[in-house]
Each structure stands twice: as structure tokens, then as C-alpha cells.
Amino acid sequence: QVQFVESGGGLVQPGGSLRLSCAASVSIFSTYAVGWYRQAPGKQRELVAGITSGGVTSYVDSVKGRFTISRDMAKKTLYLQMNSLKPEDTAVYYCNLVPPGVRYWGQGTQVTVSS
């Protein structure tokens, strides 16, 4: 059973950047699609970026051109580079399979974009 541990969140000013990391307990990236999800207060959790086992990436429209998802197979780590951050990017960010496994949600990492 895979476990995900997210890190890298924090407080950043609008226009700033952050890089999130997600460490997986087992090697799954070559077998399963994985992605970054986020949940803002009062809103449903949404998938913002995904990467297939073959390396094909996809993004929700609101982050296209600003966020980049990548992975390091050897380190079993998924990344999300976030640039040009906006206040509406404020949320708890999680990684999980795509589609998500209910048992695999971690604690997430808080991203707050505010001046």
C-alpha cells in the first residue's frame, strides 16, 4: 500500500513561487498516473495537475502556463513547481493517484498566497 508525504508549502506573496514535493513509499510512477490535488476552504478538492505513467502531463485551465508537474523515478518523488502564484491558489495541496485512492490521502501541505 502506497503512502504519500507532501511538503514544501508555505506563505508566499502574489507573483511568487513555490515547489512542492511528494514522497511516495513505493515505486509507482512507472505503473500509475499520479497528480496534485488542492482543496481551498469551502470548496471541493480538485485535480490541478497530473502525469501519466508514460510521462504525459495535463493541467486544469486555471494553472496552465504557471504550474509544472514532474517526477523523479529514482527518488520516488513527485514535484509541483508553482510560479506566478495568485491568492486564489491558496489551498491545501495533496498528491494521489489519478483517479485518487481514498486510502492514499496524506496530510497535504498548506499553500497561502497573500501580501
How would you describe the overall organization of this protein?
- The model has no long low-confidence stretch (mean pLDDT 97).
- With 115 residues, the protein is mainly β.
- The termini are far apart.
- It contains no helices and ten strands.
- The protein has a six-stranded mixed beta sheet, with no helix packed on it. A four-stranded antiparallel beta sheet has the order 1-3-8-7, with no helix packed on it.
- Percent of residues in helices: under 10%
Span from first to last CA?
40 Å
The quaternary state of the protein chains shown equals single chain
Strand order of the largest sheet: 2-10-9-4-5-6
The SS-based structural class is: mainly beta
Q: Helical element count?
A: 0
Low-confidence stretches: none
Average pLDDT over all residues: 97
Radius of gyration over C-alpha positions, nearest whole angstrom: 13 Å
* H-E string: EEEEEEEEEE
Sheet-strand content, in percent, reads: over 45%
Principal-axes shape call: globular
Number of DSSP strand runs = 10
Mind describing the biggest β-sheet? 6 strands, mixed
List keywords for this structure.
115 residues; mainly beta; 6-stranded mixed sheet; 10 strands
Summary of the model, kept short:
This protein is mainly beta.
Secondary structure blueprint with pairings:
Layout: E1 4-7, E2 10-12, E3 18-24, E4 34-39, E5 46-51, E6 57-59, E7 67-72, E8 77-82, E9 91-97, E10 109-113
Parallel strand pairs: 2-10
Antiparallel strand pairs: 1-3, 3-8, 4-5, 4-9, 5-6, 7-8, 9-10
